[in-house]
Write a structure and sequence with these properties.
alpha+beta; Hypothetical upf0131 protein ytfp; 5-stranded mixed β-barrel; 7 helices; binds succinic acid; EC 4.3.2.7
Length: about 200
């Protein structure tokens, strides 16, 4: 009798925030694409990675909105990679971040609606204690400017996300993200004149 094996099992994980540029787990393949029915919002407070208990940063979550879609990167983890990845992400996203998991339909950029993939996503809901909820884009930018945590400055988080959108999906809309980016670059004129604002922070 053949021994049961999980070698061919695979799990897709969709990242729309820090998981885009810093997955920090082993994966077999990755695809840029989008999920529908959600918009990305800087509505989750962060007292660990990008802020402190005294000055919580703002990081992204997904808000249900049937008219919108959110772009990001989906990672395929296979076999033995699955358990260790889920353990790692449970600490990073759930325990330290306040996120819970959900399954969503992910559409790879190249294949569009044809290539639908079921993916796990980490979402921060209003029920978690770190949730901050809506604020004006100007207020969010002002909060991001003064916050930093163990993973780095909150400005870096915002600019890396905006850079991903500009570089990998230049035609995609993300009004909330781009308005915050614009606000921040207006408040910080010295960053506006730099060619690569992200590198200024690293
Ligand atoms: C994600 O990246 O998918 C979740 C939000 C974050 O960790 O920034």
């Amino acid at each position: 009798m053949e021994k049961p094996t999980n070698r061919r099992q695979s799990l897709w994980i969709f990242g729309y925030g820090s998981l885009i540029w810093k997955p920090d787990f082993e994966f077999t393949s990755s695809k840029v694409g989008f999920v529908t029915g959600y918009s990305r919002k800087f509505w989750q407070g962060d007292t660990f990675h990008r802020g402190s208990p005294q000055m919580p940063g703002r990081v992204v979550t997904l808000q249900e909105d049937y008219t919108e879609c959110t772009w990001g990167v989906a990672y395929e983890v296979c076999g033995d990679q699955i358990e260790s990845t889920l353990q790692y992400l449970n600490v990073r996203e759930a325990v330290l971040g306040g996120y819970t998991t959900k399954l969503v339909k992910f559409y790879p950029q190249e294949e569009g609606e044809e290539g639908e993939i079921l993916a796990l996503v980490y979402i921060a809901t209003p029920q978690n204690p770190g949730y901050l909820g809506p604020a004006t884009e100007e207020d969010i930018a002002a909060q991001i400017i003064v916050s930093s945590g163990c993973a780095g400055h909150n400005i870096e988080y915002l600019l890396r996300l905006a850079d991903f959108m500009h570089n990998y999906c230049p035609d995609a809309e993300d009004k909330h993200l781009f308005t915050i980016e614009e606000s921040l670059l207006t408040i910080l004129p010295c960053l506006c004149s730099a060619n690569d604002p992200v590198s200024v922070l690293c």
